[in-house]
Amino acid sequence: MKRIITATVQNRGGVLNRITGMLHKRQFNIESISVGASETEGVSKMTFVIDVSDNQSLEQLTKQLNKQIDVLKVSDITDKAIVARELALIKVTGSGQLRSEIQGIIAPFRASIIDVSKESLTIQVTGKPDKVEALITLLKPYGIKELTKTGVTSFLRGQQPKQVTELNSYSI
Amino acid sequence: MKARHEVEQHTNEVVTGADVLIDALVDEEVDTLFGYPGGAVLPIYDAIYRSQASFKHVLSRHEQGSIHAAEGYARVTGKPGVVLATSGPGATNLITGITDAMMDSLPLVVFTGQVANSVIGTDAFQEADVLGITTPITKYNYQVKNVSDIPKTVKEAFHIATSGRPGPVVIDIPKNISSTVELDQLEEEFSLPGYQPTTQPNPLQIVKLADALKNAKRPLILAGAGVTFAEASDQLKEFAEKYDIPVTNTLLGLGSFPGSHSLSLGMAGMHGTYTANMAIYECDLLINIGARFDDRLTGNLKHFAPKAKVAHIDIDPAEIGKNVPTDIPVVADAKETLQALLNTSIEKPDHDEWQDELQANKTNYPLWHDRSNELISPQWLLEQIFNESNGEAIVTTDVGQHQMWAAQYYQFDKPNRWVTSGGLGTMGFGFPAAIGAQFGAPDDLVVSVVGDGGFQMTFQELSILKERNLPVKVIILNNEALGMVRQWQESFYDERYSESIFSSQPDFVKLAESYGVRGLKVDKEEDVVEMLQDVFAYDGPVVVDCRVVQQTSVYPMIAPGKGIHEMIGVTK
Ligand SMILES: Cc1ncc(C[n+]2csc(CCOP(=O)(O)OP(=O)(O)O)c2C)c(N)n1
Ligand SMILES: [Mg+2]
């Protein structure tokens, strides 16, 4: 099962290496990682999408992340009210007639064309991973020349429905 | 820093980063530094020379010797072992020991030299990416960027190494840092918002555990090294006695509960006693205190404690539920938890039937071994070592058959007297670990039980015995083989002894003598007791080459993949 996990970490040397090394050593399957600054200076925010086999393995994952000395907080936000976005850049072959066809496809996704050349155009799309995936699928028949994604970044919505309780590995 | 003034008074010289480092070590009350010099640490060695520091430096003959000695020191003193090595090959020679300490949760603070900052990343002479290499095998690691950070970094490293679940910490020091003349204001305070080990048990879990104990008919305590680290042996004894609960130990937990106690079932696991393993199989409440359910303990997880409610007390939350599903998780220090349990009034249960069953197993299925008329029986030899040292020695072992026999036959009544490599199973560990143990406990009898294979990996440290007149007694169980490998080939590979029998060996007596150490050889059982009396009474180092039977195996045993109730070799 795919989980979205966020971690706030102290911005010390080697922290990313330490975390990805641990995930690799303990055989966790990383689908994506995004890292960047947070609202606090010296603190970074990481968002992981990780495929885990079962709850025991999920519990190990959050505990092993928490165990890292530079990690301040770990949350599994998969089952919460969240905003989650990723950005993809997609270069497709297309000229003349095809261009307007492609434009028609991407319009409902609120994607935009950010670069055009003689034989190709580059599309930028942001959104939830499944939306981005859906657009990629639709564009495939046109021939994707190049594709790059940022990985998901995410946090909780301002308001949470009441019944949701936080999955905190230290609650035991 | 009071140490600073002392240094200045002594030398009246400029203060470099290396001097600041020495001060920081003195502030941490380091009394022994295990190390080996080289280019990148020359400024530090110079500072050691100039400082006349209050700690001693022990020069090994290989960095692996330094770090295993530091591990032995940490194991018997409970204090962190401190190591210093140069960059590149000096640092990489420490890797086995750092990994060993990580697996067995030993507190170490390891300093490595590094090439100067200006050439880091250029593949400079003796440059190795120590941070990269040691990240997966340390609790934490640093590279010092400014001289002013040294005091704070050292403090933080000692704190991390010794608190919570202990472990090794590496501090990599570029040569420009150790040689820079220090001018800046030193940083002393550290803050670790992401590291706050939970030491107090959750009261709700204590209630749950008390309740489970009240209702248990067949409770069992599994005590690991966490009990020793928490200095909770007295509380464990009181708790076990108060509620009449039998106790079994992990390999590393030996000594945390008195082996001679009537409630002790001995060691559990692959080469544990039949009684202990069947107790795990049959119990209805398993209280794990400070053990990590390692696979050599559990055997096939499907058959591990299948009838039991499992309580797990561990300071490391990540160990709970990792291998064995846990009903009552307690993230806390072992001593605090036992104290909380002792403060709770629990109805005293009756476990007579359970105790009788265990007692019957103890009587009917004791450890057994053959005696030979040719060479010495290794198990019997261990019994004699136990007897002749009155069970009071600090025993270090290497890895192999002799290690398991030592665990089985040497009964420890006190903690911090058993030094062995459990998690990593590192051959070459036992002898240097004994050196560190002897430095940590100068007045105790330190016996190093090693195999003829493993001793040959690190025996160069005999130099230290001579140099320091350290009275370590090295007992080689010489079966002219990599005995444990030979055993597995006998049992699981149809006696195809591939590369496990030595066809040539050094003369260990002459070897010892060449280092200026007394060497003895014994090959008859009738000479053993007298030899041991002589050796243990001798005021100095001795190496004894004991010729033991080769064709003998460690039993009983849980074969790989089998359950804890499926031991083989339980009886003759
Ligand atoms: C560094 C290292 N290499 C290899 C092994 C695998 N191994 C485990 S026990 C053993 C044999 C040890 O032989 P010896 O030291 O003579 O002890 P014995 O088993 O004969 O008592 C070997 C090779 C190991 N544990 N450590
Ligand atoms: Mg051998």
UniProtKB/TrEMBL annotation, chain A:
UniProt EC number: 2.2.1.6
Alphabetized CDD domains for the sequence: ACT_AHAS (cd04878)
Keyword Acetylation: no
Pathway(s) the chain acts in: Amino-acid biosynthesis; L-valine biosynthesis; L-valine from pyruvate: step 1/4; Amino-acid biosynthesis; L-isoleucine biosynthesis; L-isoleucine from 2-oxobutanoate: step 1/4
SUPFAM superfamilies: ACT-like
Biological process per Gene Ontology, one example term: L-valine biosynthetic process
InterPro entries: Acetalactate_synth_ssu, Acetolactate_synth/TF_NikR_C, Acetolactate_synth_ssu_C, ACT-like_dom_sf, ACT_dom, AHAS_ACT, AHAS_small-like_ACT
Quaternary organization: Dimer of large and small chains.
Name used for this protein in its record: Acetolactate synthase small subunit
Native source species: Pontibacillus marinus BH030004 = DSM 16465
